[in-house]
Amino acid sequence: MRFNNSVRFVALFVLLVLSMSATGCEYGSKVWRDAQDSVNPNPTIDLKSAGLKNVNDNELALLFTPVDEKILSLTSFLSNIDSHPDEDWFKLLFLRFPWITGVFTVDDEANVLVKLPQESIKPFKPGPLVEYEGDWSEIKMKSFINYSEFGPEMYLCKPFFKDAEFKGLVVVHFDPRVLLNFCPFPQKLVIMQPDGGGIWSGDQTLEKEPFLKIDWDALLDKEVHGVTKIGKDKYVWLSRYVSDTQIVYATKIVTKDDADEGEAFSIF
Questions:
Q1: pLDDT averaged over consecutive 10-residue blocks of the chain (268 residues)?
Q2: Domain range spanning residue 108?
Q3: If you write DSSP's letter for every residue of 109-162 in order, what string do you get?
Q4: Which one of 67, 82, 224, 247 has the largest count of C-beta atoms within 10 Å of its C-beta?
Q5: Rounded to 5 degrees, what are φ and ψ at 46?
Q6: Whole-prediction pTM value?
Q7: Do 248 and 200 meet the contact criterion of CB atoms below 8 Å apart?
Q8: Strand, coil or helix: what is 143?
Q9: Does residue 97 belong to any structural domain of this protein?
Q10: Structural domains of the chain, count
Q11: CATH code, domain carrying 163
């Protein structure tokens, strides 16, 4: 009799465990399915989006974005150095940015430490750089464009330190006109430095004089993007900074709706 009672108890216990296991599995499966639905909801991609709604802004964005990406990538790469770079850094610089003219480093007395390539067509004296009256420890990067008979050259200057003391500069330089090579339609894009008067475009017939007559100081004091009549045509333009050098990208408007001043660009 005791044996039979034991058998009944074991049987009931087994049935209870199986019932709980089945319920647990069902609940666990539901939780897993819910989690999968949340993590992988099978998203859809809208391939019909045409970008910016304003066709003029869209045109300018398509032209200047590949150019601007090159500049942003270079400045980001240069920003990551805070001590004098080693040989591998210089190799990687030219590997990633083969379009630059060169690079050099100077100490805090303007003595050249490294210069690649050693010869340069465009003459430049680094003395005024280290004589900067500000505090280099508070400067992340400085930039400027130098104009000579051999053409313009943009210089990006990054200070380097040792034991938290300013020891010199890493200077990467390039011809801003080379940036037009990265534009899908360089003949449609105008790049200019309002302060220095430099105007560059793939359009060899572009009349530059009308651009120089525009009061860019007044425009840029109020806006970073707009539509302006330049000569006989209207241009949509966008202002950007390369470190502390302001440049403007512009292209001729492609619609007759001049009343629409365009959308606000998302500056990345």
A1: 48 48 47 45 44 83 97 96 96 98 94 92 80 77 92 95 92 97 98 94 95 94 94 95 95 69 45
A2: 78-176
A3: T--EEEEESS--SS----HHHHT-SS-GGG-S-EEEEEEETTEEEEEEEEEEEE
A4: 247
A5: -85, 105
A6: 0.76
A7: no
A8: strand
A9: yes
A10: 1
A11: 3.30.450.20
